[in-house]
Prior knowledge:
By secondary structure, this protein is an all-alpha fold. The chain has one domain (34-183). Helix content is 55%, strand content 0%. It is built from six helices and no strands. Helix 3 packs across helix 4 and helix 5 runs antiparallel to helix 6. The longest helix is centred in the middle third of the chain and has 33 residues, at 74-106. The protein starts with a helix and ends in a 35-residue tail after the last helix.
Amino acid sequence: MLGAGVAFWxxxxxxxxxxxxxxxxxxxxxxxxxxxxTIQGLLALGLGGVVGAGLGESRQAGGLFLPxxxxxxxxxxVGEEFGLLGAVVVIGLFCIFAWRxxxxxxxxPDTFGALLxxxxxxxxxxxxxxxxxxxxxxxPVTGITLPFVSAGGSSLVVSFVAVGVLLSISREAxxxxxxxxxxxxxxxxxxxxxxxxxxxxxxxxxxxGSA
Length: 211
């Protein structure tokens, strides 16, 4: 409750943030103003139907246009041109990415690689969830791009670099065939990265204790 109260207070201090929340609750309150993005995104998804209008055939009715169609609302264009099937394929690909990223994290050769792989996977998948949630009006407008799909230079480059790091961790795991913190004698069911626990140091372990 305290966190919700702090979040509400933080949002209510800025008018534009409060407008995003009220628009999320009722986009039809101002259909040509703050609710225009949300309504046009839902309209584009509805026009796509099941199989879509075809590649490059996304057209809004009545001469209206979809704002930020190449960036924040690219998922609406995917739904309009490729329909429900295309939207499901995009969501399915991100689900596969999440599954593979988790497997890489579990098979990482050390704890740092496991945490890094888990962080990269979570970051990209949560970003995709937020972008798709905005388009389908599940969450307020945030302005976050859809990884690997939205147009953009810096966002796309950073996403590719992150995937490159994830692939490097996967390659190290495949090359070693085991977790670095574990020995080669450990069985397959023990091949998991783990955080090292506390260990009591003895006088023999301390190089200063030999003096």
